[in-house]
Amino acid sequence: MGYSLSQLRCCDRPFPCVGGVFTQSAQAALQAVGWRQASKFRLKSGAWFLGFLWSLGFGFWSFPAAAAPTKPNLIVYLADDHGVDFVGCYGNAVIRTPNMDRLATQGTRFTRVFAASPTCAPSRAAMYSGLYPARNGLMGNHTACRPDVRTLPHFLQPLGYRVVLANKSHIKPESVFPVEVLDATLPRNPANQRRYRAEGLDPAKVDAFLAAHRREHPDQPLCLILADNGPHVVWERNKIYDPAKLPLPPIMVDTPKTRAALANYYQDITTVDGRVGEVMASLDRHGFAANSLFLYTADQGPEWPHCKWTCYDTGLRVPFLARWPGVLKPGATSDAMMSFVDVLPTFIELAGGQVPADLDGRSFKRVLLGEAQAHRDHVFASHTRDGQMNIFPQRAVRDGRHKFILNLNPENKWTTHFTKVMEIPDSHGEVYATWTAAAQTNAAAARLVQTIEQHAREEFYDTQADPFELHNLIADPAHRDRIARLREKLAAWMKQQGDAGTPEPEPPK
Ligand SMILES: [Ca+2]
């Protein structure tokens, strides 16, 4: 990672100047992606300059690492269903996420962090336990961990931490996650037609909590998980975006309903971004900024077809922004591959504890501090089901470039809430029906619907040439050796996990 001012980064290569233009290599990468309007993407020069001033006033030069207390506050803003392609500082030219972009200027932007599961509860349980789903027991959404599993509070409370979860838990049973719960949920807004989610995190309640902690527990380190409900469906009504101007990724059929729904998703993300900004201001106001690792991430990608509930990068790869004044250098980027199971061991190590050897995760402290540039050679993921929905179990392994997926029920048609649930205006089945209708007369739409719904038992992708994983190369002899290696790697991982790869039973008729 580069740390001198001349090497401040926001994208894949150093910017030539503060607030400078997108570099050729980054542009080429985005052009390969196709749908992003790379030429329009610039971090606002004003935001860069403010980030620089912030670092001068409150960051690196003001708080030398040697002066920092040994136990930092560990604060995670955990969004719900936010894919990495929908953040300004990750290359989306249209979405408005000024506070997330500001985080990138103040700290480190990680580009290759993967959820352990593309589903809410298994992803969170893996993050909190340092164990992949099969080993902690929480495989299907809304199921429970084994009762003997130890999680974040079990490890951090004995190290002196107050461990608090605000808002969404989604991990069961309560005994495996004995956190202090902070009620910080916004009241219902009748203007939003919410199903499947609460309104979202209430920054005012977080602000009051931080003030009280500072006043009542001034010397106790804090581990605080701020679990927002956005941008999970059902999305807020669009107010600020022009649907006609949104870039469509190649996993969507271009219809008016698609654009209306995508604008709603963008709107919901921008609303979350505003709450992130309010929380950042609260941290600064109450004196938490200087000795706090503050992370922004999400449990998995969005509820579009071929995203959430799938092991494609669109389901697993999430934004991961880290700010820690005096420790993380402003504007850094790391391409190290990391998994959500690595979060717990990292927190244990930062808190001064001993990381148990039997966790699946490994501490990325050295990467975080800029002392190492690589972390994992492979990440793994699994999807099981969500009750009677999404019965399309997958196991996956990914190296730095290639992905191998094993489908346990390839005979099933892939479906999800988004394809099946009707009666939500400009969302879900109302949108997907326009895709299947287009597929009747449009060959490209027909190919996409076929790719979304029908799968071979094995899939293999080159994520560099095909970042949306639409072209299965499993039968390509040019990749035979790579496929064999990753197939073997996945089998060894499943064996280590005690995962027999048993197909899921059909729901009762
Ligand atoms: Ca989620």
General description of the model:
It is globular and about 65 Å long. With 509 residues, it is an alpha/beta fold. It contains 15 helices and 12 strands. An 8-stranded mixed beta sheet has the order 4-3-5-1-6-7-2-8. The protein has a 4-stranded antiparallel beta sheet with strand order 9-10-11-12, with helices on one face. It starts with 23 loop residues before the first helix and ends in a 12-residue tail after the last helix. It has helices at residues 24-33, 45-58, 98-106, 120-129, 133-136, 152-156, 203-216, 256-285, 313-316, 343-350, 365-368, 417-420, 428-438, 443-453, 480-497; strands spanning 73-79, 108-114, 162-167, 180-182, 222-227, 292-298, 317-323, 332-339, 379-383, 394-398, 402-407, 458-462. The model is unreliable at 1-48 and 55-68 (pLDDT under 50). It is 31% helix and 14% strand. The protein folds into 2 domains: 5-375, 3-Layer(aba) Sandwich (Alkaline Phosphatase, subunit A); 383-497, 2-Layer Sandwich (Arylsulfatase, C-terminal domain), CATH 3.30.1120. The longest helix has 30 residues, at 256-285. Calcium ion binds next to loops.
In CATH's first tier, which class of the largest domain applies?
Alpha Beta
Structural class assignment:
alpha/beta
Q: Largest beta sheet, briefly?
A: 8 strands, mixed
Order of helices and strands: HHEHEHHHEEHEHEHEEHHEEEHHHEH
Strand content: 5-15%
Q: Write down how many β-strands occur, each being a DSSP E stretch of 2 or more residues.
A: 12
Strand sequence of the main sheet, in spatial order? 4-3-5-1-6-7-2-8
CATH homologous superfamily of the largest domain, by name? Answer: Alkaline Phosphatase, subunit A
CATH topology of the largest domain: Alkaline Phosphatase, subunit A
Bound molecules: calcium ion
